[in-house]
């Protein structure tokens, strides 16, 4: 049965318990708290111990499912956005489904690096509109600590581990869709500026080029995502961008012309850059703290390796 | 055509706005990072603002060659 659209009914997130501060990093590499806060805006990050990508994805999805009022048996699609799952097969999505007792969902992983959650929400929304699914779990889960060179001062200070999840359901007849059209794309000519390649893979990036692209190219796309949803930028209650760098967030906010009434989380201060997990993690915390009213328009916008980008306006669950 | 002095003073305005540099400190021989304390990301913001102000294109691979204010003035002078 096709549907007029989907909406997010619940969020959940998981972070490892181990906190690594900037001072902790400064004890092993040539860096310091002031430098990191000034350039990136991160004070601390959570680093996984024994938890795998699938473990973190499962814990986040479990919370989202519990908050949704749906049962495992109702879920017919599981999508996991990740670029750090070292295990290639089975995929993370089927691991999560098995752990949650979801019997026979369409289950797949998706890799567009840090923009993955918005790609996943877009893909699940399309499946629901087409009648290929009714209730989907979309997860962003990353264990960047597995692909970080802990001796490289340029990258070791940037990343963290986490997972965030959303439960999407088809809207009832006559109900307004709560997930706006996705705006997605890429700049494949810039593929080499952000890589996790080789074996053992380590993340490498050309920070200045990524920063320039993110602060100049993305605001028009974010604006276009709002236009597709029929929402004026001034009507947004919140803007949840990928949490890569505080100065990138400030740059996009400035170019979008967002007023001070718009909630713009900077969860990276306590979580670092968690790639595809960063948007659902930040959104889940906003929902948990009731910082945005239910039903209010929130612009999600992810960007990262590929280079790829995607965003959409969603109604806050 | 802007003169070197005009370009330098235009850059000084940008440096003040983007990185809080005192315009009196800006001179051609000054290094952006060592003398004016402009970090690598602020340097990108300076370049983007300079492109708009002077109507030039400063490609990504050119940014690392702009070590001093004079380097930037020469590039802008030759390309705008």
Automatic annotation (TrEMBL), chain A:
Residues 108-176 form the Beta-ketoacyl-[acyl-carrier-protein] synthase III N-terminal domain. It catalyses: malonyl-[ACP] + acetyl-CoA + H(+) = 3-oxobutanoyl-[ACP] + CO2 + CoA. Keywords: Acyltransferase, Cytoplasm, Fatty acid biosynthesis, Fatty acid metabolism, Lipid biosynthesis, Lipid metabolism, Multifunctional enzyme, Transferase. One of its GO terms (molecular function) is 3-oxoacyl-[acyl-carrier-protein] synthase activity. Pathway: Lipid metabolism; fatty acid biosynthesis. Gene3D superfamilies: 3.40.47.10. SUPFAM superfamilies: Thiolase-like. The active site is at 114, 242, 273. Residues 226-315 form the Beta-ketoacyl-[acyl-carrier-protein] synthase III C-terminal domain. Coiled coil: none annotated. Signal peptide: none annotated. GO terms for cellular component: cytoplasm. Its main location: cytoplasm. Belongs to the thiolase-like superfamily. FabH family. Catalyzes the condensation reaction of fatty acid synthesis by the addition to an acyl acceptor of two carbons from malonyl-ACP. Catalyzes the first condensation reaction which initiates fatty acid synthesis and may therefore play a role in governing the total rate of fatty acid production. Possesses both acetoacetyl-ACP synthase and acetyl transacylase activities. Its substrate specificity determines the biosynthesis of branched-chain and/or straight-chain of fatty acids. The last Arg residue of the ACP-binding site is essential for the weak association between ACP/AcpP and FabH. Homodimer. This is Beta-ketoacyl-[acyl-carrier-protein] synthase III. It comes from Paractinoplanes ferrugineus. The lineage of its organism: Bacteria, Bacillati, Actinomycetota, Actinomycetes, Micromonosporales.
Automatic annotation (TrEMBL), chain B:
Pfam families: PP-binding (PF00550). One of its GO terms (molecular function) is acyl binding. InterPro entries: ACP, ACP-like_sf, PP-bd_ACP. The keyword Lipid biosynthesis applies. 4'-phosphopantetheine is transferred from CoA to a specific serine of apo-ACP by AcpS. This modification is essential for activity because fatty acids are bound in thioester linkage to the sulfhydryl of the prosthetic group. 4'-phosphopantetheine is transferred from CoA to a specific serine of apo-ACP by acpS. GO terms for biological process: lipid A biosynthetic process. It comes from the Bacteria. GO terms for cellular component: cytosol; membrane. The keyword Lipid biosynthesis applies. Keywords: Cytoplasm, Fatty acid biosynthesis, Fatty acid metabolism, Lipid biosynthesis, Lipid metabolism, Phosphopantetheine, Phosphoprotein. SUPFAM superfamilies: ACP-like. Pathway: Lipid metabolism; fatty acid biosynthesis. The modification O-(pantetheine 4'-phosphoryl)serine is found at residue 40. Belongs to the acyl carrier protein (ACP) family. Carrier of the growing fatty acid chain in fatty acid biosynthesis. This is Acyl carrier protein. The lineage of its organism: Bacteria, Bacillati, Actinomycetota, Actinomycetes, Micromonosporales.
